[in-house]
Amino acid sequence: MIGDLAARLTRKSRSNFYYAFLALPKPRRDALYAVYAFCRTVDDIADLGRERGDDLADQRRALARWRRDVALCYEPGGHLDDPIARGLAEAVRAFAIPRDALLAIIDGVEMDLDRVSYETAEDLYPYCYRVASAVGLCCIEIFGYTDPRARAYAVELGTALQLTNIIRDVGADARAGRVYVPQEDLRKFGVSADDLLRGRHTESFVQLMRHQAERARRFYRAAHDSFPAVDARSLVPAEIMGRIYFALLEEIEARRFRVFDERITVPTGRKVAIAFRCWAAARFGSASRRGRAA
Length: 294
Known about the structure:
two-stranded parallel sheet; about 0% strand; 2 domains; about 75% helix; 2 strands; Farnesyl Diphosphate Synthase
């Protein structure tokens, strides 16, 4: 029942995660659904809370309750009322999901409660780690791996995915009072926060976004270089996520970063094709992993 609730939440979101999860056997898929449902739920405390105008103190208390629930997930016999938390506890009991990573995800959400601005890319990376790489570190424990390089792979890929999200959502984030593009980059390319807020698609903006895209590509390449080939079969879901997001980055680039007009997505048919190719490559030993490393 709890797994069904998490699965419905995942399907309803139309998340790229859904296509990656399809490659998993049911016990692992249910655990991934539970982790994803947890991530969505705590993220909504910041996002939906902002839309509703919730009091910041109430949002922080809600996140504090989730920190307590995460702690209870690791205590034998810990009582949890929330069905999402109970599903997460089942996943924690079945797989070695690191508590620190779950808490880091909550910390990342809390960073979004205040007006967001980062001076440099180095200042931004801890946020990317908490909201994306930490998720990857939870996921690879469910996928299974033997080579410890899988953890570096998860961290690099998570950062690449988050940087791609930042490019796609730059306008919507600015309207929400969040500017994730480093301030030093804005100054370098002559783009202001107001330009992002107003959706001004200028040549300066295009150059700024190309700079962000190249940074994301560096992390995709780093993930590719740290990929543990011995674990290729078990890490198929992660590869699917990476390929879909890399395709999203390419789509954004092909449209010259016209991200203000609409939310750019990868068509469903292409996602399914990517998922199949990743599964087939791992299953039949294909050496082709060029898509993400370009």
